Amino acid sequence: MSKTYSKSEVNFIVGIASTLGLRQFSLILAMPLLAIYGNSLQNSSSALVGFAIGIYGLLQAILQVPYGVLSDKVGRKPIILFGILQLSVGLLLASIANNIYVLILARAIQGSGAIMAVAYSWIGDVIPESKRNQAMSIVGISFGIAGTAGFIGATLLNKVLTVSQIFLICAIFTFITGLYITIFVKENKVKNIVKKEKLKAEMITKDMIKLMCGGFFVYFSMVSVFIIVPQIVDKLVGISEMWKFFIPGTILGIIAMRISAKLADKGYEKNIVKLSFFVIVISIICLFTENIYIIAIGLILYFIGYMCLVSLFPATITKFSPKNAKGAVTGAFNTVQFIGSFLGGSLTGILWGINKNITVFALLTLCIIVMLIVNTVQNYSPEYKEE
Fold first, then answer.
1. Which of 113, 121, 171, 211 has a CA positioned 20 to 30 A from the CA of residue 336?
2. pTM exceeds 0.85 for this model
3. CA contacts within 13 A on the Cβ side of 315
4. Buried b or exposed e, range 210-228, using 16+ CB within 10 angstroms
5. pLDDT digits (tens, 9 = 90+) for 46-76
6. 163 — phi, psi (to 5°)?
7. Largest Cα–Cα distance of the chain, in whole Å?
């Protein structure tokens, strides 16, 4: 990376990737145990536990744009630090929750730390367009590693720690990320003010809407697959074997992401998107079976397609926005993504209660529809050239 980026760019990318990766690890570490923890609390019910899980994505969706717009005016770093503080407080509150309503409040506070759009905008501010896809892929790699480590770690730590103690550890990790940003990541002070009319015009371009459909599906499918696959694996070989699927999937996904990022920087974004969606279609078809080896192949293929798209779409969105409106534009994009996350969990849960194959068929249908929409994007080059 040092041959491609300047020293300051390397320090910035490593800082942001490490911070967001550790933040993601803190979230994922508690996630597999959240339903079990919620059911153990006073006044709990299935509906309230579901609401506690879903309210995080809902608050993220609501606050992405306001935080993005605010960061355009006051700077990226203060907003990111405030969001990290909110997440830390929410995790700490979850660790001492004694009833389901306190857990719901804790999850709402966690979700209100909506900093993803701001972080992506900061990358867009610092990293030149020609190198941005690779920078985004590095952040994506940190997410993939953090997600896998968190999922495996949750299973292992729960053998020696209570869920409350795990939440406390997550709060400490998150607070450390805030300290790291405060001390080591610098921000050039730039006044970023954008007229509402100009921002609105940005948001209604046809290609922007199509890319947002892609972002919606990426997060919808992620949550959906993480509901479907663990239950199939648990039925066939036991949930304790899940790590054997996640590790190879993550490794191959990271390799594919790095290759696709380099190709995207050379102008092959459209081809990568088409191929990634095709791979995801095949991966979903694999989920119709109950053969554990085909399920494993399907999950690995999904990781490859998902990790290519999860870095490419945010990088592309930053190219479609003027420099002084990146926070607002990526905020809207992340809002759509988290709506996808919220609906992916809610609808998959409902359909799973009816029939497994109906659930998989619905996901496959949505994937094909979004693939057809995104494939009509005319131009992946920026409409606003940066100076």
1. 171
2. no
3. 31
4. bbbbbbbbbbbbbbbbbbb
5. 667 767 877 888 898 888 778 888 988 888 9
6. -65, -35
7. 57
Contact 171, 110 (CB under 8 A): no
Burial environment of residue 263 by CB neighbours within 10 A (0 to 12, 13 to 18, 19 or more) = middle
Q: Say if residues 332 and 203 touch (Cβ distance below 8 Å).
A: yes
Residue 341: count other Cβ atoms within 10 Å of its Cβ: 24
HSE (side-chain half, CA atoms, 13 Å) at 349: 15
Q: What is the DSSP string of 73-88?
A: HH-HHHHHHHHHHHHH
Q: Could you tell me which residues are beta bridge partners of residue 99?
A: 42
| Three-class DSSP category at 258 | helix
Q: Which residues contact 218 (CB under 8 A, 6 or more apart)?
A: 306, 309, 310, 313, 337, 340
Report whether pLDDT(239) > 60. yes
- Specify the length of the chain in residues: 387
Please state, in angstroms and as integers, the Cα–Cα distance from residue 62 to each residue in 2, 330, 345, following that order. Answer: 38, 13, 17
Q: Which amino acid is at 340?
A: G
Domain boundaries of the chain, sorted by first residue = 8-183+197-374
Rounded to 5°, angle at Cα 127 from 124 and 128: 100
Question: Up-side HSE of residue 33: CA atoms within 13 Å toward CB?
Answer: 28
> What local confidence, expressed as pLDDT, does residue 385 receive?
47
Task: Measure the CA–CA gap between 133 and 135, rounded to whole angstroms.
Answer: 5
- Looking at residue 361, its pLDDT comes to 94
Percentages (nearest 5) of helix, strand, coil residues in the chain: 80, 0, 15
Domain 8-183+197-374 falls under CATH 3.40.50.720: no
Task: Please check whether residue 97 is in contact with residue 315, taking contact to mean a CB–CB distance below 8 angstroms.
Answer: no
DSSP annotation of 99 reads B
pLDDT (0 to 100) of residue 275: 93
Mean pLDDT on 40-48: 80
Nearest one of 309, 385, 386 to 133, comparing CA atoms: 309
Task: Describe the crossing of helices 7-30 and 76-95 by its angle, rounded to 10 degrees.
Answer: 20
